[in-house]
Amino acid sequence: MSINPEVLAGELEILVNRFHGHKLLDVVLDRYAQYIESHLTEEEFLLACRVIFENDTYWPSPLRFVEAARGNPAQLAGSEWDQLMIALKENPAELPVTDRGRAALKAVGGYRALMEATDYSLESLRKRFLGAYADAGREKPVTPVLPEAAALVVSK
Questions:
Q1: Alpha carbons 84 and 111: distance in angstroms, whole number
Q2: Which has the higher per-residue pLDDT, 146 or 82?
Q3: Three-state DSSP class for 36?
């Protein structure tokens, strides 16, 4: 994804002035830019900046830009669950499911579990779906590879 560097710098400068009133280190802004460019389009970035500027109280994390543009996992999970419930009642043959939703649905027992659920068990399935949806969307932490670390290991 590519964001015009002038747009990126200008929007981040507006946010820096809004939240800090003083300049952040270039290395910090570079890290933000790197993360943002790898996760958002320019249009999404501009939307995120507007949402953050208008709603947030504190300087945002890099992930906050993504959530401001696309919704946070709890909102997305709740919305997808609601869509599933509507589709189950109206047209169970065509349930609208994203990849994350599919993973969450599988974690709670699939379509059959939803279709066979009682009103009482449906709430439990909903909670499990929301948790599994959040888990499915979490970025896996990347452990940096440090070749020089092997030299630090002392064998006995």
A1: 10
A2: 82
A3: helix
Q: Cα(55)–Cα(149) distance, rounded to whole angstroms?
A: 43
CA atoms within 13 A on the CB side of 101: 16
Share of the chain above pLDDT 90, in %: 44
* pLDDT level of residue 148 (50, 70, 90 thresholds): low
Whose CA is closest to 9, among 36, 40, 44, 38? 36
- Name the H helices within the chain: 5-19, 26-39, 42-55, 62-70, 73-90, 99-107, 110-116, 119-137, 149-152
Is the whole-model pTM more than 0.85?
Answer: no
Nearest to 73 by CA among 52, 95, 103, 50: 103
CA pair distance 53, 153, nearest whole angstrom: 48
